[in-house]
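User: I've been trying to design a sequence by hand for this structure and keep getting stuck. Would you show me what you'd pick, starting by listing the structure so we're on the same page?

Assistant: Good idea, let's start from the same input. This is the structure you sent:
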């Protein structure tokens, strides 16, 4: 329930352990809902979220297109797509073809104003999204309306890793003036719009690291990234929202530093981040922490191993009020059904209802 999530993010033990899942497994959705997720996406997802007691999730999808190449990959509108669920994964094939890529500093031809928002249009869109979500789900769930490009992720999705890393290292002052500063102000305005939605929880995202860890020294982040977070997040803090920070990669090195920022909760989307370290930092601090289930194990282990892992995670996490159970990274179509059943049946036996 929604209130369980709010309690966990407030340092209060909830009535039951809340859960968050990125659900993208067509077989599971069909099994639980009794509906085809492509023919009836909104109802299929809505029923699956309800029956699986998923308390934090996205809006019900209005439409879903069957994969162009079932079980394979294809290129569509400049993206390479892979069939991995109801919705494919997608990575860019090329970046900014309208710019001349010759020269070491070609990225400075890009104007961050291209990423700015129309605040009136944004407010209308967010209000409509929130009204639709609340009308459909009421007090059952918290709306995961994730703001993806808070700051560090922006040059990654705009230029790809290599051009971004080279430019940021060669001339960090110039990079700051041209990119970090304007992007931070755009993000502040986006967060202001999210805070005005009326949802108690605001979700923001920044990929600070790869699966191996940070790509810069901690001093780089302390100089150029983290100090700007407080200004970006100030509208949500002022509005009294509980802010949840999501990040992929191994963020072990940042767990203590992130506690110094106004985050009520942490979503660590990669099992490379140690659950033990999360418990010792965010758990002991009484903050929310969302994760625990290793998706690699969920995908490749036996059902018995999945059940044992799930029991262990719930037993250890439930000692802390901020624990929100989740599969790090999401549940996609490559997870064997028998392992999903072991996961949800174990959850059900341990007090987190799941009708599978």
């Amino acid at each position: 329930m929604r209130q369980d999530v709010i309690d966990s993010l407030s340092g209060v033990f909830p009535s039951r352990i809340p859960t968050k899942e990125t659900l993208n497994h067509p077989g599971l959705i069909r099994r639980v809902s009794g509906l085809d997720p492509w023919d009836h996406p909104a109802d299929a997802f809505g029923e699956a979220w309800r029956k699986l007691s998923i308390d934090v999730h996205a809006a019900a999808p209005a439409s879903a297109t069957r994969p162009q190449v079932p079980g394979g990959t294809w290129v569509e509108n400049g993206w390479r797509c892979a069939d991995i669920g109801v919705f494919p994964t997608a990575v860019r094939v090329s970046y900014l073809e309208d710019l001349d890529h010759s020269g070491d500093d070609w990225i400075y031809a890009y104007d961050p104003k291209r990423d700015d928002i129309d605040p009136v249009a944004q407010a209308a869109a967010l209000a409509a999204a929130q009204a639709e979500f609340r009308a459909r789900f009421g007090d059952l769930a918290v709306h995961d309306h994730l703001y993806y490009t808070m700051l560090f992720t922006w040059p990654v999705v705009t230029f790809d890793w290599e051009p971004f890393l080279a430019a940021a290292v060669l001339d960090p002052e110039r990079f700051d003036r041209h990119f970090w500063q304007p992007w931070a102000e755009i993000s502040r305005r986006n967060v202001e719009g999210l805070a005005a939605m009326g949802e108690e929880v605001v979700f923001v995202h920044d990929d600070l690291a790869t699966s191996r860890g940070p790509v810069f020294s901690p001093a780089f982040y302390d100089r150029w990234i983290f100090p700007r977070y407080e200004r970006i997040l100030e509208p949500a803090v002022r509005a009294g929202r509980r802010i949840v920070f999501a990040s992929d990669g191994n963020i072990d090195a940042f767990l203590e530093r992130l506690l110094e920022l106004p985050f009520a909760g942490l979503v660590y989307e990669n099992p490379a981040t140690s659950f033990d370290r999360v418990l010792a930092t965010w758990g002991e601090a009484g903050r929310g922490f969302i994760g625990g289930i290793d998706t690699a194990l969920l995908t490749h282990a036996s059902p018995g191993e999945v059940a044992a892992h799930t029991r262990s995670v719930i037993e250890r996490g439930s000692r802390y009020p901020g624990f929100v159970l989740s599969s790090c990274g999401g549940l996609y179509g490559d997870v064997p059904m028998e392992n999903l059943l072991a996961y949800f049946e174990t959850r059900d036996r341990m007090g987190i209802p799941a009708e599978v």
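That's my pick for every position. To get oriented when you compare it with your attempt: Residues 125 and 329 are 27 Å apart (CA to CA). The chain has a mean pLDDT of 95.
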